[in-house]
Design goal:
With 541 residues, the protein is α+β, with helices and mostly antiparallel strands. Helix content is 33%, strand content 13%. The longest helix is centred in the C-terminal third of the chain and has 21 residues.
Length: 541
């Protein structure tokens, strides 16, 4: 679920303590014990004033694990509430008991306080906002005046039940409209979207303060050869603010800031954050520990960050590879019992260069199997197209040398068609298509369109995490109808595609490219030099 990243008021600064319980690299919503209908549920759930039937609330006893910073993993009951399609908010009622509730996403990122409450008093009910991605509501006891207490009692998540199509007649169903996406992508429209979004996330833009939600924009700017346009000081300020809001800041979240700073050309061994010069590379290593408590959702960021700023930590990298590969299910998707296409695409990116060809090949097949008739990719099996999942899949497929202009649904629509079709009519964002954090959605879409542009400009695999495009000569940006005839048709060997990448591409240097203030020509020169020195295997989506 996509949710707005909102801050608690200073008066309610419990957000910092809220989850000594959770935001760590060890957030692991592992549901492997099998769900059972909850015989006695400690809350009721209502949608639009109508109470959810008890039969629609499932209990996975002891299935949700969290690890406090420096502590050991503990497990709590996880309740899954099934709600109707289109539900935007669910009200939880605790039968008169005072509770405080905070929402987190599947990556362990704090989303928002559920309602307005005094954290030392609590409320007998709490509204939980839903979006496109999973949300986990942490139900706690109120804190004491000295900030003791606040015990986590249980966790509630939500599953949206899709409504059945009342009229399966193909002449009137949604597929006839979705077919209109075919041909929506043109290089002109894609270029306009890329230019507009790049300006938003570059220095001086409305979203220049790139954070853990918009790290994909940093990858995109770097891949365009615009790494120097990233405001590293704004990124560092975002990091300082995030840490101030939550002292139990996770290694997985730190990894995203490290990746953004690295893309900006910053030396991550000496970054000024809040007036203090810090070695974020070492902090990242220390935060990972032995990786035993790291979740796959953190690992897909930690591994590429480690590759970027601490490539000599091979044992730790191998441990993270193990965390990621262990989460692949029998269908080829990553995330274990919570597997989804977006995490799978991120895993594909993270595993590039780590000797996991067979695992990645299975993941690619699984991704392709998630395509919908409108050209997009579903987030989870059985769901409809999702912007973030589609964008992540385009990035991963482009890194594997697959031509996304040839990845067509039965209606002839491609994921590129979908990403262009759902953009705002002004081609400068995705406000009309998202009900959550629009900057996060736009960052993902920007990276996807840049990744495809990189692929189309060479006809070879393009890793948008580390590759830098050669000088833009103003030529074709990869119109779907003009794609190279010899591009991957999904039957080529991915390892060959990666091996044949153009020598014009370059990788991000281990602690930044050192050209944060350089001109565009200097960036290109530095990129070529970097390619000679070392080709990082830095990947992630």
């Amino acid at each position: 679920m996509q949710t707005l990243l909102q801050r608690d008021s200073l008066a309610n600064r419990v957000v910092a303590v809220i989850v000594s319980i959770v935001i760590t690299a060890g957030l692991m919503p592992a549901v492997g014990v099998g769900s059972a209908w909850a015989a006695s549920v400690p809350f009721t759930a209502s949608v639009g004033g109508d109470e959810v039937d008890a039969a629609d609330i499932a209990l996975d006893a002891g299935a949700y694990a969290y690890t406090p910073w420096g502590g050991s993993a503990s497990k709590y009951d996880l309740y899954t509430v099934t709600v109707p399609e289109g539900t935007a908010e669910v009200a939880l009622d605790f039968g008169g008991a005072a509770r405080i509730v905070y929402a987190y996403d599947k990556d362990g990122n704090y989303v928002d306080a559920c309602g307005s409450f005094d954290s030392t008093v609590g409320e007998a009910s709490a509204p939980v906002a839903l979006g496109d991605d999973p949300v986990f509501a942490y139900v706690q006891n109120p804190y004491n005046a000295d900030w003791t207490g606040g015990e986590l009692l249980y966790v509630v998540t939500f599953e949206v039940e899709e409504a059945a199509d009342p009229d399966p007649d193909p002449a009137t169903d949604d597929d006839s409209d979705q077919a209109l996406n075919a041909g929506a992508y043109t290089s002109a429209k894609a270029t306009t979207i890329v230019d507009n979004l790049s300006k938003r996330f570059a220095d001086g833009g409305a979203d220049e303060a790139i954070d853990n939600m918009t790290v994909s924009a940093a990858f995109a700017l770097h891949a365009e050869g615009l790494g120097s346009s990233i405001d590293a000081s704004a990124v560092a300020a975002s990091l300082a603010q995030a840490e101030a809001d939550d002292p139990y800041f996770s290694a997985g979240t730190l990894a995203k800031y490290v990746l953004a700073l690295n893309a900006a050309g910053a030396d991550c061994t000496a970054v000024e954050v809040g007036g203090t010069t810090r070695n974020l590379a070492q902090e990242l290593i220390d935060g990972i520990g032995d990786a035993s408590n790291v979740s796959v959702w953190s690992a897909v960021y930690l591994l590429p960050a480690l590759d970027a700023v601490a490539a000599d930590e091979t044992d730790l990298a191998n441990a993270l590879v193990g965390v990621i590969t262990a989460s692949q299910n029998s269908a080829g998707l990553f995330g274990g019992d919570w597997a989804d296409a977006q995490t799978t695409a991120q895993a594909v990116m993270a595993l590039q260069g780590h000797g996991q060809d067979a695992v990645v090949a299975n993941a690619k097949s699984a991704i392709l199997g998630m395509q919908q008739s409108d050209g997009g990719f579903a987030y989870t099996q059985g769901g409809g197209s999702n912007i973030e999942a589609t964008a992540a899949c385009v990035v991963a497929l482009s890194a594997l040398g697959t031509d996304c202009a040839q990845v067509k649904s039965a209606t002839g629509s491609t994921p590129l068609d979908y990403l262009v079709a759902v953009a705002d009519t002004t081609l400068d964002g995705y406000n009309e298509a998202t009900n959550g954090s629009e900057p996060a959605t736009s960052a993902e879409a920007l990276l996807a369109l840049v990744a495809y542009k990189g692929f189309a400009s060479t006809g070879a695999a393009f890793n948008a995490y580390i590759d830098v495009m050669a000088v833009d000569d103003g030529g074709d940006d990869g119109d779907a109808d003009d794609s190279a005839d010899d591009a991957d048709d999904d039957t080529d060997d991915d390892s060959d595609a990666v091996a044949n990448q153009s020598s014009k591409k370059a990788s991000t240097a281990a602690t930044g490219d050192g050209v944060a203030g350089a001109s565009m020509s200097a960036i290109a020169l530095a990129a070529v030099c970097a390619a000679v020195v070392a080709r990082r295997r830095m990947q992630r989506l």
